[in-house]
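Tutorial handout. Part one gives the primary structure; part two gives the three-dimensional structure as tokens.
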Amino acid sequence: MKLKDKNDNLSMSTMTEGNPLKILLKFAFPMLVGNVLQQLYNMVDSIVVGNYVGKIALAAVGTGFPIIFMMAAMFIGLGIGATILISQYIGAGDVDSVKKTSQTIYTAMIIGSIPISIIGIFLCEPILNLINTPADTLPMAKQYMVIIFAGMVGTFGYNVNAGILQGFGDSKSSLLFLAIATVINIILDLVFVVIFHWSVSGVAIATIIAQIISWIFGIIYMRKKYEVLRFSVIQFKFDKEIFKKILKLGLPTGIQQTLFSVGIMSLQSLVNSYGSDFIAGFNAANKIDTFAFMPIQSFSNAVTTFTGQNIGAKRMDRVHKGTVTAVSLSVIVCLIALVILPVGPSILGLFNSDPPVIEAGMIYLNNVLPFYTLLAMVFTLNAVIRGAGESVVPMIGAIASLWLGRIPAAFFIADKFGKEYMFISYGVGWALWLMMTGPYYLSGKWKAKSQKLLSNSDKK
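Part two.
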């Protein structure tokens, strides 16, 4: 049985036929635009607080991010697991399992957001102290994080909607949801910070309001567009067998994301030891270099769904073509992204015009952007492997890359050569990751993983 969009008679399994290049570009482009909007969303937060509140506020908003990400990381992993499972069920034409998977991940999201919010609110200050947050930055960072954690259900809800649609091969609808959130967030940022003078609290409140509105709009939109998604999100229907499969796919990624975020906090601790100017520059540069990462993320998300659907349809020949195409596209875009370097100081000045802040930001950009081609290759290969249902190997590679590569290299380089070169450690970690992932991909062992996931569906 094939999945249908209720508004037409086309199968949603569009990725199993046609030119892989055209399919990946068509699917990735709306996601790339969405990522640009997402980054604009984040940049506006930083630009507003950096210019209207100050560099300490800019440092505070950035310092809180890795902690927020750490608390949400496990659920993010489960969301990825659900996306892969949905894409494979769509490729296999199993409508009932698509609906059960969507209901199950929604139930897990709503119930799971409550303890994550509570724990985050109570632990944010101790963790901020643990990562050497400067005394002048800590109060604002705590203030920002408490509000974000209180509204975590909106963040989770938006991401669940986007993940389900990605499994369907629909990247345009989630772009609409993000556009709505971005416009609302920008307007509320300016109102709450510039007019009401609510400082970092205004930015945080604007963020959660925008995400909750976008989440609710997404639910209404998805129910109207896809008949299979016409269920109440508060019915709390939960399929244990489906959830076991989600866990099998998503738990390794969740563990990877959690350990990765802990590692990032270790690096944040090193960055924090150099003071608020360095923190502000580092956080501003992170917003800029994300533009280089966005195409990688978009193409890798596209190839994950492409892989899942084609494996579900037993088209392994197309999986290889999609992999080569996605790697090539990602590497080309990373080379083009090097044009950021000459204009870096001017862009950093949008966040804060203090020379020490700009200098710190350029230290990061000059050391990281030249190595992005390594990240492009390894990220895409891992996306293919995950799309096939193998999550453990990408997890091991990512953890080793961070804990055996980037973190020790950062502390060693900073100690021996100074903070001006510490971010070369990113390239060290990515090279190690590629040396682990590349041979595993070439071995082809990952191809057999999807068969077990689909076996129960075949029996039905």
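Part three, for discussion. The chain has one domain: 18-459. Residues 1-13 have pLDDT under 50 and may be disordered.
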